[in-house]
Amino acid sequence: MSVFLDEKTGKWYFYGRYPKGHPKAGRWYKKRGFTTPKRAEKAEKEFRANWLDEKNNVIPTITFQELIKEFMVYQQKKVKESTIKSDKHIYRKINGRIGHIHLSNLNKELLQEYIDELDQTYSKNYVERIYYAIQKALSYAKFKGYIQANYIKQVEISARKDEIKKDIEYWELDEFETFINSVDEIQWKTIFITFYWMGIRRGELMGLSPSDIDMKEKTMRIHYQYSVKTLKRTTPKSKNSIRTITMPDEVVKQLEIYIARLKAFGTYDETSTSLYLFGGVLPISATTFDRRLKYYINQVNKNEQLITPITLHGFRHSHASYLINNMKDNYSIYDIAKRLGDTVNTILSTYAHWFKGADRKMVDMINNIQGKEKPVRQAKNDDYERLKMLKELYDTGILTDDEFTAKKKQILNI
């Protein structure tokens, strides 16, 4: 080990050559900026400790950063381009903290310390993203034989039991109508009506082409989404997301107005698969959606707050909650999940919100029943429908075996 004084800066530095057996064997290393020779010596000792054992022999391993470089090449054959871009962002964050560390030194204690640091600063979801990104990379390292065990699996993430999850804001129908009445631009009125009454994701709306709209059948086909990471159409996030859904009359009416305007300007081709329904040759940028939504909300609330400020994703929550709170016997949770391109579990755990007055309606129903004679048992065909819905909940994992059996006996009165 050698340290030297930089006469120009008055600071100390160390440098040397990577030894045989190191992945960078033969190349030089150099670190500058130390105020004393002792600090430079200590820094070099710590630097070399990453790849030398107690006997000063080179540890045959690679750094986490070098692993990620190899892993990302491997990933390109396995996942979508948008996933690669998202992962690169996360791994840049991770490399800034542990990228220089050799895999042989990446033990449980070090990883636990890193996750605990993140827990003090970032949201639970973001910490989990980093945790599972490390787990994915180290699983690859184990597969390649670089490590014997994936220590991140022994690391604990704070459960944050006392943390209150912030609900996504959404609109009931009266708030949406107050909002949409203030939107005076045909294009944006069409966009916001589509979001509220179709419940589609922003990327799905951005990916729509004129050929995806069937005005005769009143349907909308979702089979692409626009990725803001790759700046092009990609397949949806899951198989559930590929669907053809019926448009309410409100959406059809507004689309007729919007399409008529595009035709008047000669910018609409109903057979086109390359044009974007909202934008033309290129889609409207993702940030423009947020700006226009915020602008119109501020217009409505200019003198007093008449509506709750929501994000663009709040439209999807609004649509799902509207369907859930008005379902009665017309359709099931499973039907709502299919329409939104999601799972039943996600609909119930993420998108279900309690409408104002729902509690009062339930109590009124209880009072109404108690004030009358005990109702006659439902007819057999009604029992069949209840059993059918019960089976759907069981198949999707909402009900356990015991719960399913108990409810079935209750319906059949056995």
Provide structural commentary:
Helix 3 packs across helix 5, helix 7 (186-198) packs antiparallel against helix 9 (249-264) and helix 12 packs across helix 13 (344-351). The protein is extended and about 85 Å long. Helices cover 50% and strands 8% of the residues. Among the domains are: 3-49, no CATH class; 64-154, DNA polymerase, domain 1, CATH 1.10.150.130; 182-325, Intergrase catalytic core (hpI Integrase, Chain A). With 414 residues, it is mostly helical. A hairpin with a 4-residue loop joins strand 6 and strand 7 (232-234). The chain has helices at 37-49, 64-75, 81-98, 108-121, 124-144, 173-180, 186-198, 202-206, 249-264, 286-300, 313-325, 333-340, 344-351, 358-370, 380-395, 401-412, and strands at residues 3-6, 11-17, 28-34, 213-214, 219-222, 225-227, 232-234, 243-246. The strands form three sheets. A three-stranded antiparallel sheet has the order 1-2-3, with helices on one face.
